[in-house]
């Protein structure tokens, strides 16, 4: 080993000597190439280290399980949540997700490899909060986007198809300003979406709203949020159908319960403070007046707690669903 290293060192020295002997003009290009190669290697290495830290751990929870198979660098690099959300009420008019889900959540379902080194200091990873707003578009969409812009951050919106008419401009603006427009069905009607037990109506609605958003933004979104959350109304077969249709589905790790605290921004703040503790948080909010009121405070609080804000990016997708289904 040592010998081979020495040999390789010798070889390198020889190579360097050879390089030095070359006339200056010829020698510049290889140096630039070498620098490019080295910086690429450094980038790849740092990506590997980042990924290996967060790869394939999953957190089984009584609400959302967050699986982060791969997150790219920069501000949106993130670690796995370390604990479970103790409660999460799905959406407005919602039902509580059932207590525990024992479906296996294994790394084998994750797309990337698992055999990378994992020795980077964890402290270097920033905490990341994904703000998500359901049940729009609405008369509050522009206000929410304006607040996000003031803070130089972006968020993820899950829109209802039947509400889009008249708000096409708001959706387009939100999208153009760097926010992600996700899907939240056409009707938000529990009976239509779930009562049959079949995924047919659900998928039909999501395909329709997907087309509507694509017409407005030019991009078809594939991230959906199930009205009332995925649990308990969406079982395994149902999820299989969602996977087959090509959608990804996010629940959340924090329910701000903003939908029920009309006129009570303090209560919303309390909810958020009580539930924030993971390295990656996906925060459920709605397009409501009290949410607009509380939003600057929420952003400030999370910033003070060391969170960076991220918007959903398909190429950096990770799973956040109550079933712990890493396919979604
Ligand atoms: Zn909703």
Automatic annotation (TrEMBL):
Residues 1-13, 107-118 have a biased composition (Polar residues). Residues 1-22, 76-125 are annotated as: Disordered. Residues 127-310 form the NodB homology domain. It comes from the Bacteria. SUPFAM superfamilies: Glycoside hydrolase/deacetylase. It holds the Pfam family Polysacc_deac_1. PANTHER family: GLYCOSYL TRANSFERASE-RELATED, POLYSACCHARIDE DEACETYLASE YHEN-RELATED. This is NodB homology domain-containing protein. The lineage of its organism: Bacteria, Bacillati, Bacillota, Bacilli, Bacillales.
């Amino acid at each position: 080993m040592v010998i081979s290293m020495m040999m390789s060192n010798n070889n390198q020295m020889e190579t360097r000597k050879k390089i030095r002997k070359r006339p200056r003009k010829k020698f510049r290009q290889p140096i630039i190439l070498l620098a490019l190669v080295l910086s690429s290697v450094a980038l790849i290495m740092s990506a590997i280290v980042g990924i290996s830290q967060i790869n394939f751990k999953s957190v089984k929870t009584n609400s959302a399980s967050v699986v982060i198979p791969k997150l790219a660098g920069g501000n949106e690099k993130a670690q796995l949540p370390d604990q479970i959300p103790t409660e999460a009420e799905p959406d407005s008019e919602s039902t509580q997700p059932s207590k525990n889900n024992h479906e296996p959540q294994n790394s084998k379902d994750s797309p990337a490899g698992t055999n990378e080194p994992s020795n980077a200091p964890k402290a270097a990873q920033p905490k990341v909060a994904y703000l998500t707003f359901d049940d729009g578009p609405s008369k509050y969409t522009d206000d929410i986007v304006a607040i996000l812009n003031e803070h130089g951050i972006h968020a993820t919106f899950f829109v209802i198809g039947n509400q889009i008419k008249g708000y096409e401009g708001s959706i387009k603006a939100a999208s153009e300003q760097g926010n992600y427009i996700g899907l939240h069905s056409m009707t938000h009607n529990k009976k239509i979406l779930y009562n049959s037990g079949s995924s047919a109506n659900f998928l039909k609605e999501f395909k329709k709203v997907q087309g509507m958003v694509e017409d407005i933004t030019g991009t078809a979104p594939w991230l959906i949020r199930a009205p009332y959350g995925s649990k308990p109304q969406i079982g395994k077969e149902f999820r299989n159908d969602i996977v087959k249709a090509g959608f990804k589905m996010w629940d959340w790790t924090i329910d701000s319960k903003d939908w029920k605290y009309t006129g009570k921004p303090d209560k919303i703040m309390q909810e958020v403070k009580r539930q924030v503790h993971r390295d990656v948080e996906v925060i459920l909010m709605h397009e409501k007046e009290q949410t607009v009121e509380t939003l600057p405070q929420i952003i400030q609080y999370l910033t003070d707690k060391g969170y960076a804000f991220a918007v959903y990016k398909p190429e950096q997708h990770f799973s956040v669903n109550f079933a712990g289904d890493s396919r979604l």
